[in-house]
Here is the input.
Amino acid sequence: MNNLRGLDLNLLLTLDALLSEQNVTRAAARLHLSQPSVSVQLAKLRESLGDPLLLPGPRGMRPTARAEALREPLRQALQALDHAIASPQPFDPGSAKITWRIAASDYSEYSVLLPALDALRKAAPACRLALQEVPSRRLSAAMEQDKLDLAIFTRTGAPPELRSRLLFKERYRLVCRHDHPDLQHAPTLAQFCQLEHVIVSPDGGGFFGNTDEALAAKGLSRKVVLSVPHFSFVCAVLTRTDMVALLPERLVQDNPALKIVDAPIEIDGFDKMMLWPERVHRDPAHQWLREFIAGALKEE
Here is the structure.
C-alpha cells in the first residue's frame, strides 16, 4: 500500500484508458474529459511512476515495457475495486450460505423463531441459525464485536444504541393443567393468593416479581413455591402438578395440556422487539431475515 501513498487513484483510471486506447484524444472521450486534462494527468503519471509509459508511435502512442507490464494487473485491480464498492446485489436466500447469530431466551425461541423456522429452512436451505442466550448488559458489546447479528428481546432493558423493531405486544395469563381441581373457574383474588405458584427468574433464584409488587400494593401476597430460570420448564411443571403460573400468552396458547384462566389481577405485559447493530442495518441478507421473521408472525 505504500506505493499508493501520494498517488491520485483517478490517475489509474486515466492510465487504464490510455493503455487501452493508446491515443490521448480517444482516452479523453472515453473518460469524458478534455484532451488537455488527460495530457496533464499523463504527465503526473510519468512523474509518479518514473517512466514515460506511452511514447509517440506511427499509429498513435506505443506503451513502454513498464506500461505493458502494468496493463493486465491494473485492469484486474480496477475491476476488483469497482466490484468492491458496487451497490449490494439483491439477496438470494435460495443460494446463500450464511450463519446468522441470534440472541434469544427460550420464550423468544418459542414465540418468535419457531413460527418462522420451517418456512425459513425452505426459503434459505443452505443458511444456518446459531441461537444464544445473552444478557442485556452484554448485547451491545457482542454485536459490536461481530459475535451477534440479531436479538429477540423485550423493550425494557434494550440497549438504546441498537436498531429496533416492535414484533408484538404480549400479555400474561394465569395457566394451570387442564384438569386442575381448584381452577375450573376463574379464582377470586383470595383464592389466587392461596394457590401454589411457580415463577420464572432469568437471573436465578428470585421469588418476587411484578405480580408480587401488584399484590403488595393491595396488602396481599401469594405462595411462590418454585423459582426456575426458563419458561419451558414451567410448562412441564404445570402439566404434572397443581402449581399455577402467570405466563406469556403466546407460550401456552397452543398447548392442549394446559388451561388458560382469567387472573383476578392485571399484570402489565411487555413489548417483544427485534434488535440489531448499525453494521448490518443496510445489509440485504440481514434485512431479508428481519422481514422474514416479522412476516411469519403476521401470518400466524
